[in-house]
């Protein structure tokens, strides 16, 4: 099993490619069902990523239903590829969603939300280790975003696959997860 970010990124992208639409739906639902067990439901603002279908990411539709059912405020983002910064918006019935040039579904407009009020962040990832380190696509959007969150913001990775033992090339600036939820298990760090 590879242990550096570059090889792990490739390995998990390939594993994802093998997943069928049914696999993704089934595993995404199992992840959402496991989330119910976490002690996070007394918060107000939940940041959710909208999946890039083409990259076979975890489908967060089930999590969105869970959050609306619990009357939570849902926050989604728009990415600026020049600055590698994300701007956050409240998801409402009037929010228009449009895919950007990288197939990332994003809000076209809406009410901007300051990072300081976000309580929980569901984090997309390709792989993670038993220490709570994660590997994303390597663009650093989430590292920048998570670094701006308040210290008590709960960071939850979502993964179709189990953890790797250890990621070798972790940086000081990498923000660790508090939990990672897979279809079969909840990891607490």
UniProtKB/TrEMBL annotation:
Q: Which domain of life is it from?
A: Bacteria
The reply to whether ATP-binding figures as a keyword in the UniProt entry is yes
Question: InterPro entries in the record, alphabetically?
Answer: FTHF_cligase, FTHF_cligase-like_sf, NagB/RpiA_transferase-like
Q: Which reaction does it catalyse?
A: (6S)-5-formyl-5,6,7,8-tetrahydrofolate + ATP = (6R)-5,10-methenyltetrahydrofolate + ADP + phosphate
GO: which molecular function terms? Answer: 5-formyltetrahydrofolate cyclo-ligase activity
By its UniProt entry, which Pfam families does this protein fall under? 5-FTHF_cyc-lig (PF01812)
Presence of keyword Metal-binding = yes
The EC code for this enzyme is: 6.3.3.2
Do you know which Gene3D superfamilies this protein is assigned to?
NagB/RpiA/CoA transferase-like (3.40.50.10420)
Q: Which cofactor does it need?
A: Mg(2+)
Could you say which enzyme class this protein belongs to? Answer: ligase
Q: Which UniProt keywords apply?
A: ATP-binding, Ligase, Magnesium, Metal-binding, Nucleotide-binding
Similarity section: Belongs to the 5-formyltetrahydrofolate cyclo-ligase family.
The name this protein goes by in its record: 5-formyltetrahydrofolate cyclo-ligase
């Amino acid at each position: 099993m590879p242990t550096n970010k570059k090889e792990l990124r490739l390995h998990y992208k390939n594993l994802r490619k093998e997943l069928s639409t049914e696999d993704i739906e089934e595993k995404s639902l199992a992840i959402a069902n496991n989330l119910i067990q976490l002690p996070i439901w007394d918060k107000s603002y939940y940041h959710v990523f909208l999946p890039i279908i083409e990259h076979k990411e975890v489908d967060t539709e089930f999590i969105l239903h869970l959050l609306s059912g619990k009357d939570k405020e849902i926050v989604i983002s728009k990415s600026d590829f020049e600055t590698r910064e994300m701007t956050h918006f409240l998801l409402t019935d009037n929010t228009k969603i449009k895919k950007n040039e990288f197939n990332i579904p994003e809000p076209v407009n809406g009410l901007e939300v300051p990072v300081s009020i976000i309580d929980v962040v569901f984090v997309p990832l390709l792989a993670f280790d038993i220490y709570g380190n994660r590997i994303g696509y390597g663009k650093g959007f989430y590292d920048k975003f998570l670094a701006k969150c308040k210290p008590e913001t709960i960071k939850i990775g979502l993964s179709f696959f189990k953890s790797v033992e250890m990621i070798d090339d972790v940086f000081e600036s990498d923000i660790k997860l508090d939990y990672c939820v897979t279809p079969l298990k909840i990891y607490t760090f």
